[in-house]
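Please go through this protein, sequence plus structure tokens, and consider how the sequence yields the tokens. Keep your notes short.
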Amino acid sequence: MNAITTFLWKKILASTVEQAVRLVGKARARRVLLIGENTNALSHALSDSVEQLEVLNHNALHTLLVRSQKKIQAGRPFLDAKDGSFDLCLVSFGLHQVEPEVAEQIVRECMRIAPTALLIDFALAERNIELPSQYICSIAEQFLHRGHWDIYKKYIRVGALHGIAHRAQTSEFSNITIWGGGIRLLLVG
């Protein structure tokens, strides 16, 4: 089971990186903040196509969220970046791992520091043909990452990626599906 999961994740990751680099180019972003990266694949691919790339990796994001809990609950800014200091804020698979209210606040922070954001994460099926990939993603989250299964269920209940983006009052510019619709890349502003 682990070998199959690893193989599928590498395929999904390669496809995600390719589409993300394309969307960053489409947005003409030169200064990018990458939040939640876990593998370095995305930062490596983006380093050649942008002038300034700052990375807040998966572990650093969780540390920041714990330290900034009071600011987040009060709806105050918690990232150290100034308003408009980036062209694009990219959140890679970080929204489904936190409470929906925190995910919404992360998107709002992205919109504060950049005019556009690229959100990459698991999504709800929009058509019946996409249901199998959504189920597979859910099963993987349930069994491989038991620590945040309850949070993932809340993420799904609020509408997953589209729900979080809507709650943060963003407008959708581009919507790309990967792996049968279980994963989406949303370019929002």
